[in-house]
Specification:
Helix content of chain A: 25-40%
Largest sheet of chain A: 6 strands, mixed
Structural class of chain A: alpha+beta
Number of strands of chain A: 7
Oligomer: homotrimer
Shape of chain A: elongated
Order of helices and strands of chain A: HHEEHEEEEE
CATH architecture of chain A: Roll
Chain lengths: ~180, ~180, ~180
Amino acid sequence: MTARYGRCGPSTGAVEYLASVTDDLMALVRTERDVRAICELKYRYLRTLDSKDWDGFEQCFVPEATGDYNGLVFDDRTALVSYMRENLGEGLVTLHQAHHPEIEVAGDEATGRWYLYDRVIVEAFSFMLEGGAFYTDRYLRTPDGWRVLHTGYRRTFEATYNLGDLPGFKLTGPGVHTHK
Amino acid sequence: MTARYGRCGPSTGAVEYLASVTDDLMALVRTERDVRAICELKYRYLRTLDSKDWDGFEQCFVPEATGDYNGLVFDDRTALVSYMRENLGEGLVTLHQAHHPEIEVAGDEATGRWYLYDRVIVEAFSFMLEGGAFYTDRYLRTPDGWRVLHTGYRRTFEATYNLGDLPGFKLTGPGVHTHK
Amino acid sequence: MTARYGRCGPSTGAVEYLASVTDDLMALVRTERDVRAICELKYRYLRTLDSKDWDGFEQCFVPEATGDYNGLVFDDRTALVSYMRENLGEGLVTLHQAHHPEIEVAGDEATGRWYLYDRVIVEAFSFMLEGGAFYTDRYLRTPDGWRVLHTGYRRTFEATYNLGDLPGFKLTGPGVHTHK
């Protein structure tokens, strides 16, 4: 910092310079906080999804939110949440982990890239799926915090297994632990 | 910033306002740094675990640290570290990767949520395990940096494989690479 | 903050103290921004790798960049990028996800640790590989942003599968989705 002071106390210029640097700093810090808040929103979205906490899941989106999961399109939050609630019910285990956040904040809007790894296991159908995908999301700042405005991904690959090929495969559901 | 200056130099009010904003900023920045330090602690905990660096692993915890891995309970650090040292020795490959940090700092304490993906391979027993879990941790600020006060998770799923079902499965241990 | 003000307006000392705190703050905030920028560089590097966007991949490195993937050594960017372009072409699906960033910034250089999970699938050879590794990277600040100066990892494990053991295995490539 190059502020200069006169002999008789700080000049108005020095304080104005300091005020301007402080404004810049506040903007930078707010961006870092926004980025972290958006990451936490994404984590809550995926945590409630995999926990089948559909009310919590719904609250991650604004009502007008849209979705596009590689062509599986939703025009609003109600359609998106209803689909998940109906298709990812009990008897179906999911893991959705989003990595590599690249978040850009512009005022009250933001965009996010993510790299998904996901897994679906439906033992009744001897079915297991795993895949990777790149997400491109849009977020909106609301009075209650950041919310998802659009979420969508494009698959990098998707593989499915017939669990009949793995007779020794055993699945235990939430809250079970084999280490004990 | 709305600081106002008098005709004859900056007012005491302007500087006091600036000092108060600077205090707020310092608190915000410190929180971001604490969050990152806690993430790095968790990464060191899992890196030393998967590297079987038990001394480094032990140093991630305060002595009174407790653990609860879905019912596998430890009452202090000694019990937790001893269990890992005895049960995750050579001949057993582990991968523990923690995702989706949701960290909240309150003074010298903090809480953390994480979404684990883990894998255990014991070739001698033709055994492979993979699973997901949500961690709920508590952390303590010490003179040497943040340390784990409690770590625990609840499984979302756990699957085990009999490697006898996969006769073409080949495992190579640390430091081996098939690309070359 | 303990700044003191005289009766007749702020003292030079108070403003100097504030300027010094503001300098410290700016340094702290810049470090957080650098850490995030380096993470985003790593994510771009892996995103362009798995997308086979070789021009974008090349731009993540300085020309003199070196690589050491557990003994698979490259002496400059040209050698590294050429190898990837030739060996990770169409017909080969890759997933490289880097977790657990531990980044240290020192001026215009930085180091980074990461914990990789990766997967390679080559259906034509009934081949699937998965593994873990710890990366140790070095980064350089350039006029165009941070770039990779050195990247290298050491395997924690590597497992290969013969997809002939899994006759029900089905792979679909980029942009395909079975949910619909």
